[in-house]
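Title: Prediction job returns without error message
Component: structure pipeline
Severity: low
Priority: P3
Assignee: unassigned

Description:
Job completed but the reporter wants confirmation the result is attached to the right record. Sequence as submitted:
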Amino acid sequence: MTITTPGKTSAEQIRRTRRRFLFSPNTAPNIGDSVPLDKEESKHAASVLRLEIGEEVILFDNINISEYLGKIDSVTKDLVTVEVTEQMPINLSASKTHALIGLPNFKVCEIIVEKLTELGTSEIIFFIADRTEIKILSETKFNRLLKIKDSALKQSRSLVSTKLRLEKNLQEALLSFENIDNISKIIFTPDLNSSKITDLTLKTDKLAVIGPENGFSAEEEQLLKINDFCFVNLGSNILRVETAGILGVGLLQAYGRKSS
């Protein structure tokens, strides 16, 4: 496959001026291929944006983490197809940030998913904590969160395809990180006697834990200590889950870039 890259106009300028659509192919497309948008993306392109044949758009392959420049080559009410014309150069960070969050109410979940996706969080994992008031997240609501995630991914032009999942408790949520050595494990707390983020030497990957509104149980706190989590304070104010999550992840990413 011959790959061409944008010429006179920089890739960054193109990203800021073209409409972006997500697609999930089984295999990466070749230059010249016609890629169908899914039903929802097609409806948005045709009925909301009213795009026409020949208009340039960006396709983000959220499976293979690639971006392509393309042109609309057919438009109907239910299906829009895009001819792939160029593969966009992308620079992916080697660093990943994962967020484990005690399941809050659904409105708060929506805020967290949207904002952490915009920040380029690699993975958002909600877990049912001992003191979590909400003990279930229906399939309908989870699918709604997936749509919010995809919308934020398009809006923010992020090159990180954020993953989203739900675990039945904290212990289950931690299992997938057991064999990862190069990862900073952090729990955010209002305790001023805890470490400051500037005291830490952050590793390539970061795992941030944010507790539920009612805090962690003694058993959960012990589990975090056994797993070598560092307690880091976000100031003396008691923050809501969504505030702590957004602030904490933002600080990890900003300070992580500074210290790398």
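Comment from assignee: result matches the submitted record. The chain has seven helices and eleven strands.
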